[in-house]
User: Which sequence fits this backbone?
């Protein structure tokens, strides 16, 4: 029996599995190997098990990655496939996000039950979301809307919507596309007015630093523009000390040798907001993101971060 040359770790949600299958398909194509050369190892994480509280209350993004990162360090798996936007900016020692696959649509989608467009929701309508960024943006435009905590996987959220628990919800276009469910989208949000989370829409691969065999296997999967855009967005997030309690948005675009970036920070109640934009050479992506963070921090003032933290 042929043993797998690479073990791919992933969470077990439909979206996580779709991302792991996509990664496997790209690995097969790049190396002309059969499916059996890559084993998908499904893992349950604390984040998947805790369903009744907001993530920001129980420990944040790390809850979805701890078990998987332990397996990666122990050599039980060789790579882990994640949604970049779910990844903390600092990773356990010895691990890194080595490869970013070509990005899907980074924008947010509105899924309305009674109206198509978010802005057309009636006064006092109920919207489901547990993302602090989306909550702050919703409140910024429509302080009258009632927001209910909406955790669980994409399917669970859409079922709650169908059952009438809420009038609408927001999800990433990318996730819905990967699940083959883009037809539920009733409005694609303008990324200037309703900017996405840093990293949204991009699959990343986490691996051990200095593992030459794995690096060689992964190399053909790296998508240049996405790698550069994500270096900028994650530098912005990291310099703002992006915790789950800070509504932060940011999106970079790479065009040839140039990069442009726009970022936003908001207070959770949506009443205060700062925007920043930056441009420069693609080779300076991380510097541009970090500099944009320093400038937006200065423009906002320290009380912006301390007032409600
Ligand atoms: N936090 C859950 C999560 N993580 C990544 C995605 C979507 C896919 C992506 O951004 O790549 C989603 C669901 C959503 O926000 O709709």
Assistant:
């Amino acid at each position: 029996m042929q043993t797998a040359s690479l073990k791919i770790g992933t969470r077990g949600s439909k979206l996580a599995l779709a991302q792991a299958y996509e990664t496997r398909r790209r690995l097969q194509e790049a190396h002309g190997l059969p499916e059996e050369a890559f084993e998908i190892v499904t893992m349950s994480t604390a984040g998947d098990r805790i369903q009744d509280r907001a993530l920001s209350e129980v420990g944040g993004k790390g809850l979805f990655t701890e078990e998987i990162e332990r397996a990666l360090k122990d050599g039980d798996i060789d790579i882990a496939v994640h949604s970049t936007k779910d990844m903390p900016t600092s990773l356990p020692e010895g691990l890194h996000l080595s490869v970013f696959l070509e990005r899907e649509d980074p924008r947010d989608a509105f899924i309305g039950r009674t109206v198509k467009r978010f802005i057309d929701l009636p006064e006092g309508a109920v919207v489901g979301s547990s993302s602090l960024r989306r909550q702050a943006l919703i409140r910024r435009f429509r302080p009258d809307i009632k927001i209910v905590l909406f955790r669980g996987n994409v399917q669970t959220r859409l079922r709650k919507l169908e059952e009438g628990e809420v009038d609408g919800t927001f999800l990433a276009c990318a996730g819905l596309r990967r699940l083959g469910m883009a037809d539920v989208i009733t409005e694609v949000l303008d990324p200037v007015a309703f900017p996405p989370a840093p990293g949204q829409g991009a699959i990343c691969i986490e691996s051990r630093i200095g593992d030459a065999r794995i690096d060689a296997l992964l190399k053909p999967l790296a998508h240049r523009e996405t790698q550069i855009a994500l270096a900028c967005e994650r530098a912005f997030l990291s310099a703002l000390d992006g915790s789950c309690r800070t509504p932060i948005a940011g999106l970079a675009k790479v065009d040839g040798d140039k990069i442009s970036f726009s970022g936003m920070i908001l207070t959770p109640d949506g009443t205060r907001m700062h925007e920043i934009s930056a441009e420069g050479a693609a080779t300076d992506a991380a510097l541009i993101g970090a500099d944009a963070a320093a400038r937006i921090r200065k423009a906002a003032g320290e009380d912006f971060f301390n007032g409600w933290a």
